[in-house]
Amino acid sequence: MSLFLRFLRWFSVHLYTTVAWSYDGIAWLVSMGQWGAWQQVGLDRLPQGQILEIGHGPGHVLEKLAEHGAAAVGLDPSRQMGHMAARRLRRRGQKVHLIRARAQAIPLPAGRLDGVLSTFPSEYIMDAQTCAEVWRVLRPGGDLVIVPGATITGRSLADRLGAKFNQAAFQSAGPDPRWTRSLEAAGFAVTLEHLQLPRAIVERTVARKPASSLSIAR
Predict the structure, then answer these.
(1) Within a domain: 216
(2) Residue 119: which of 167, 177, 71, 51 has the closest Cα?
(3) Is residue 218 part of a domain?
(4) Is residue 202 part of a domain?
């Protein structure tokens, strides 16, 4: 592994903790300003009702959910991200319940949620325990919506450079089959989608808990 890739691995870990202050700038850079539009791809597919965002980061998605009147809850293990999201929501007068916890142990009752959203998650999304926990907290017929990656397709010089950096940093070459298999093993019906935006192709995965399922932990 090259020194550059080692640095990227290190930075991707610390991006959510010690250097969380740089998250928005990095997100803008790797997307060439498209990060918000990529997140919107996940928001567009969510059902109405009670929504959990896993890995809420600095709170942009929660802000949009609150603006549209959704009953939203945010979950993130990072203390720094929790503080950033709380400040953002407080400045806008939005009341959203934030939980500091891991996706493998969601402290919510079984069958509580209509939808779960995760945009650009790291490898925790592949964990079988994460899939089992999301299954547990979703109501029958509920959806887990994941935006795992995007490929910049714009032809400007900035977009071409951004595409190379994005691919090197995040290897955005489609959903990892390991976590697709984990979702299916948990009982979800999984649909993989690729949406063409003006300057990017955004991946979206929808995992539905069948309506006939019992809303208890498997």
Answers:
(1) no
(2) 51
(3) no
(4) yes
Cβ partners under 8 Å of residue 57, min gap 6: 16, 23, 76, 81, 84, 85
In this structure, of 66-70, 143-147, 182-186, the range with the lowest mean pLDDT score is 66-70
Q: How far apart are the C-alpha atoms of 96 and 62, rounded to whole Å?
A: 7
Instruction: State both tokens at 27.
Output: 């997100």
Specify the residue for token string 């939808």.
115
Instruction: Report the alpha-carbon distance of residue 90 to residue 63 in Å, rounded.
Output: 10
Q: What is the CATH number of the domain that holds 92?
A: 3.40.50.150
pLDDT single digits (tens) 146-186: 999 899 988 887 777 777 766 665 544 456 677 788 999 99
How many residues are given for the chain? Answer: 218
pLDDT at res. 46:
96
Total structural domains within the chain: 1
- Residue at 215 is within a domain: no
Sign of the dihedral defined by the CA atoms of residues 202, 9, 63, 139, in that order:
positive
Enclosing domain of residue 116 = 3-208
